[in-house]
Design goal:
- By secondary structure, the protein is an all-alpha fold.
- 80% of the residues lie in helices and 0% in strands.
- The protein contains four helices and no strands.
- It starts with a helix and ends with a helix.
Length: 147
């Protein structure tokens, strides 16, 4: 396997690991800690999810650059699954995360906010993104390990 392929597969699963650790574990676990108020938990969440989004964008850009720099004839074969993840990342970056951040800021500032389905949308999008990334990574492994 060429270096670009190995790196792109590794970055794909690193990306999945970050999302799994933050979105599916840290996000709700922090509220189980003693003395964590909603405001404090939301403030931590704002910092962590901003950092996660930066890591995700970096992974996405690096994977795309590695694909484009590869000369392998099947480098685009699993691309539809990566595109799903990229589209979800864009939706999260431009719509869901800013909306959740604004909502968190209001709550931190003790403004009453009506119930919202934004968190549900975020979780659904995370599941779609992670599924796309896992399928992409597995297909890349299969394509490049079968001779």
């Amino acid at each position: 396997m060429k270096k670009q392929i190995i790196y792109s597969i590794a970055l794909t699963f690193i990306w999945v690991g970050f999302v799994g650790a933050i979105s599916f574990m840290e996000a709700w676990l922090k509220f189980q800690a003693p003395n964590i108020t909603t405001a404090l938990g939301l403030g931590i969440g704002q910092l962590v999810f901003k950092a996660l989004n930066s890591v995700e964008i970096t992974c996405a850009v690096l994977i795309l650059l590695l694909i484009l720099s590869s000369k392998h004839p099947q480098r685009f074969k699993a691309l539809p699954f990566l595109i799903i993840a990229l589209v979800v990342l864009v939706i999260q970056t431009v719509w869901v995360l800013p909306a959740l951040d604004a909502r968190a800021s209001l709550i931190i500032n003790q403004v009453k906010v009506p119930p919202s389905k934004l968190h549900l949308w975020y979780v659904i999008l995370e599941l779609i993104k992670v599924t796309g990334l896992i399928i992409y990574g597995i297909k890349k492994l299969r394509i490049h390990t079968i001779r």
